[in-house]
Design a protein that fits this description.
The chain has 15 helices and 16 strands. With 549 residues, the protein is an alpha+beta fold.
Length: 549
């Protein structure tokens, strides 16, 4: 028996969990049962209370009916008439006793509860005063009814039970009707659609059938919508398959392009650890087999050696701003003396990832360097022009070593009688003279010194790493002596001279501009002294600030 009960319980649980018909029917019946019991309880209480009130009202009406006869019996002290009244009242099941009193004399006491001082605690009484039939103000007695509450309650309960049973039957019939209607018009079609949908095959064009009785209602609309959804899903699956095939083809093409590209491509994380790269990346960085990176392990900073700090700065700049940045780096080809330039561009593609591009820009850099040399070079003599002199002198003057700026001597050279050559023999001869002077200067200075022709017949020599005045004067005198020798300009020789002003840098607080001005002033002093002379610029007077310091 226990086995059958457990099996039935499992079967019912499975049906409730898997069947919408069972759940809906049980829900309707359970709801109907709860509501029926609730309403039945309310109605039963209400009916019982109403029946009790109706019983008491009937007793009041009964007293009103026999009141006239009771007046006569009490007025005449007629015990016989009083007894007949009492017997008539006792026929009512709700009356357990009757007492009629005239004045202080009891005309009749009927019923077990009518004795004096008995039953008053357990039974209710209805007492009505009796007045004279001839004088409404003259009280001649009283009539007392002893009410049997239990009898009234039993009768009221009987009526209430009948009403409750009728209502319960009605509720049950309504619940069964509702459950049946829901089953026929709702749950059964839904179950049929669900069963068919469960059995439908994964075939193109498979559709649900619309139930014949539900073609135009919500179930029919649901089936139509499901069929539309199936059709849309089929289209989406077909489109997705086509896109996947196209994506695979595009991915193979892109992989082929990346592998064959001349541009180096790579992906790395926010720490610079390489995740993927193409063959051009390895080729452009001139990596040896021992230097080959390992995915997820090797950092780009390690491959670029001394440029690691600059690359870290570029990496942080890209991650902080979310913008792409590039960096030009000079690397040396393995086993070669030629300098190679590459451009590294980083572009953030996520919070923790960057895409990089490497291009060989050696030719562009060489062209830039050539252009810079041309821009800073005098086209006639091949020496530095004014722009080149300013750049090179500034670089030397402000070298990191603190003593470098105090080991410079600037020679301002101006040719004497050059205008006579230019005017008398033409500009071509003047150009030959300027080129000749340039070669003289190159012969007399040391490696590392600077030679420039700022313009016209002016030349500048910067002696680097010199503090000896005599050595500077020796070099200036040798230059003057070589320039004073006859110069062959083709058809004959010409004679020119040179005046030289020398200024030494005085260390901290000095500047290239101030040094050039002092040398220029010294050169004019040499010219006024008779030309072909060397003049030293005086040491600058320290300012008040420097003196205090």
């Amino acid at each position: 028996m226990s086995f059958l009960r457990n099996r039935f319980t499992r079967w019912l649980h499975a049906r409730i969990r898997s069947s919408i018909v069972t759940r809906t029917t049980l829900a309707i019946l359970a709801l109907s049962l709860v509501l029926g019991l609730s309403f039945a309880s309310i109605v039963s209480t209400s009916v019982e209370r109403r029946e009790q009130q109706r019983g008491e009202m009937q007793l009041q009406q009964l007293l009103s009916t026999i009141e006239r006869t009771a007046q006569i019996a009490c007025y005449l002290n007629d015990r016989t008439l009083a007894a007949e009244i009492a017997q008539g009242l006792m026929r009512n099941r709700a009356v357990s006793g009757v007492s009629i009193v005239s004045g202080k004399t009891a005309l009749v006491r009927v019923g077990k509860n009518a004795a004096p001082h008995q039953g008053r605690a357990n039974n209710s009484t209805i007492t009505r005063p009796i007045y004279s039939p001839f004088d409404a103000q003259d009280r001649v007695g009283e009539l007392t009814l002893f009410v049997d509450r239990a009898a009234i309650h039993v009768e009221a309960a009987s009526d209430s039970r009948d009403s409750t049973l009728a209502m319960g039957l009605q509720a049950a019939l309504v619940a069964v009707g509702v459950a049946l209607a829901v089953y026929i018009f709702s749950t059964r079609p839904i179950k049929a659609v669900s069963t068919e949908l469960h059995r439908i095959r994964n075939e193109r064009g498979a559709r649900l059938r619309v139930p014949a009785n539900n073609r135009y209602d919500e179930v029919g609309t649901l089936v139509t919508d499901v069929n539309s959804l199936i059709a849309n899903l089929e289209d989406l699956v077909t489109t997705e398959r086509q896109l996947r095939i196209a994506h695979e083809i595009g991915e193979r093409k892109l992989r082929l392009i990346v592998e064959k590209a001349e541009t180096g491509l790579f992906v790395m994380d926010d720490r610079g650890v390489l995740e993927s790269w193409n063959p051009a990346f390895v080729r452009l960085l001139h990596l040896t087999p021992e230097q080959m990176p390992h995915s997820g392990v090797t950092q780009l900073q390690q491959l670029l050696g001394s440029h690691g700090a600059r690359l870290n700065q570029l990496l942080n700049q890209c991650l902080n701003t979310g913008q792409p940045y590039d960096l030009d780096l000079d690397v040396s080809a393995a086993g070669g003396a030629r300098s190679v330039w590459i451009e590294v561009t980083l572009n953030p593609i996520g919070p923790n990832a960057l895409r990089g591009v490497v291009n060989d820009i050696t030719e562009r850099k060489q062209n830039e360097l050539s252009a810079q040399e041309l821009a800073s070079q005098d086209t006639l003599t091949g020496l530095l022009n004014r722009r080149g002199l300013d750049a090179r002198l500034g670089a030397v003057f402000f070298m990191p070593l603190p003593e470098t700026s105090s080991q410079l001597a600037l020679l301002q050279i101006d040719l004497d009688r050059f205008k006579e050559v230019n005017d008398g023999h033409g500009h071509e001869s003047g150009d030959r003279v300027l080129r000749h002077v340039s070669r003289i200067l190159e012969r007399n200075v040391r490696r590392g010194d600077l030679i420039a022709r700022p313009g016209g017949d002016e030349f500048v020599v910067v002696l680097v790493g010199i503090t000896d005045r005599s050595k500077a004067e020796e070099i200036a005198s040798a230059i003057i002596a070589d320039i004073q020798r006859p110069i062959d300009i083709g058809s004959h020789h010409v004679h020119i001279g040179a005046s030289v002003g020398i200024a030494f840098a005085n260390g901290a607080g000095d500047s290239p501009e101030a040094l050039a001005r002092r040398a220029d002033s010294a050169m004019y002093v040499a010219k006024r002294a008779g030309r072909g002379q060397v003049s030293f610029a005086p040491e600058p007077i320290p300012t008040q600030t420097n003196a205090v310091a």
